[in-house]
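INSTRUCTION: Work out how this chain folds

Token vocabulary: learned, describes local backbone geometry

RECORD BEGINS BELOW THIS LINE
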Amino acid sequence: MNGVFSKLLRIDVGSGKFKDEPIPEATVKAFIGGRGLGVKYFCDEMDPAADALGKANKLIIATGPMTGTPVPTSGRFSCVSKSPLTGTIFDCNSGGSFGVHFKDCGYDALILEGIAKNPVYLFITAKKAEIFDATSLWGKSTKETTDILREKYGKTSRVACIGPAGEKLVLYANIMNDYHHALGRGGLGAVLGSKNVKAIVVDPGTKEQRTAAVKIANPEQLKVVIEEINKRINASPVTGKGLRIFGTTQLVNLMNSMGIFPINNFQRGSDPRADNLSGERLIETIYQSKEACFMCPIACGRITRTSTRTGKGPEYESDWALGADCGIFDLETVANANYECNEIGIDTITAGATIACAMELNETGMLPSPWKDVKFGNKDILVDLIKKIGTLDGIGKDLAMGSKRLAEKYGAPDLAMQVKGLELPAYDPRGVFGMALAYATSNRGACHLRAYVIGPELLGLPKLFDRFSFSDKADLVVKQQDINAFYDSCVACKFTGMGVPEDYYSRAVAAIIGTDLTVTDAEHIGERIWNMERVFNTKAGFSRKDDALPPRFSKPLEAGNSKGKVPPMAIMLNMYYQARSWSKDGIPTKEKLEKLGIKT
């Protein structure tokens, strides 16, 4: 089939067995690739009740038909597994160039099974796959691991690996690729660690050494679509200017002015010191250069340097979580904390939010006396706390659980700002009602990327919605969730949605694989993926009660441009279920599943 190799590699790291398997054409047409392909195989093969850190769990890496093509932002790939942090089905996607190099080895997906007896790493080329001992790499940072393996295998190799946090099964450990790109959130690094897999090295070799290349069905048609996509990326004030100049931290001052920039564990929605963390301040103080993922004309990444270290970021979410959410407004401290998270391999949002939760627990007298310095605004302890998370040393062992388990342990579960165990990102839902619904209904827990309603609610992209209205939000959230599931299956960067109309990527995929694919078809594919994930979670024990925000958000903010507002969650949730054609309890109906071709 055009655009894909229609082949996956299955590896049982316990037995050391490798197997190539064909991917049916019908599966590609129904799920495209990336997230969709991973979800399809995962749901078909996994028991929803299985332990996320047990032998039965699987981890699936998948590319899409766009991966490695000239389509803008086509360097991304997806990873699907069961999250040890949330217990839900979970997917992440990452940029850089690892996904392109993996696909160039002649595979669309990799399924990892079993548990190795000792630490190992995988080496995959266009001709073979091998397992090697990784004992000497165990305990090393993601940077050290990548340096060692790239030195061994050369410039055409790429590395995805875990750091010490993944080895020690920190529940929100990341898989890092290309040094500082993350399969972040949800703890898929801990899943890899539970299998004793330190790294995956892919090396397709030079173009002359590769055994095959994917074929494009309609190259001329694709060329026209690419030109149109680039025009719209360049014309957008977000992708053509804001992200290119300031990176993602351009959002700090806007969110603060709107009163939805969470401060001190979501106790406030703005702070006059927020500018200290802004994209403008980053450019003035620690900026070194831009960095772009494969085939990305936006280049939102920022290489930065503090007085002691160099690295990438912080991005907006990391900037907030490690900064304002902890009451810290020193950009150099936040950048150093961000570098540390990347090197030990943990999610910056959950790390910062969990530390912020601990700070509020301490503020209310719920923590033991050795935690007395864990206070809002204490920048001197931030990097040390992150190091302790990576080693499970002292307080780090509790912080490694994530905010939900931490708050429950110390008798104040309401102080964890999470949904389904996943911490909220940097937008207070009291000021963006669509975002509130998106957090509550996300299949992987509180997430802004399932439906980035900030675009229409604040940025007016593609058109402006009243951020405090509720009657129009169910349909808006459903549509974004479905089309984003399609983007994650292509695999495309969601930033393009800030300037590129939805139909352009369906047209790009159609030109690549050679079939008709309208934007309605794309939404239908996304809806199929979303419902399949929901069915998995339902079988895993999740229900309507889990589609809820923390109690804090039932009380309005007392100051700022979002004060006095509370999203009517019960009403919006009923409207959402109705828009989804689910039962009043949030369960996909038999009729809906049959219409989508989902077997249960």
Remarks:
- The chain has three domains: 7-203, 242-416, 429-596.
- The CA atoms of residues 98 and 280 lie 30 Å apart.
- DSSP finds 23 helices and 17 strands in the chain.
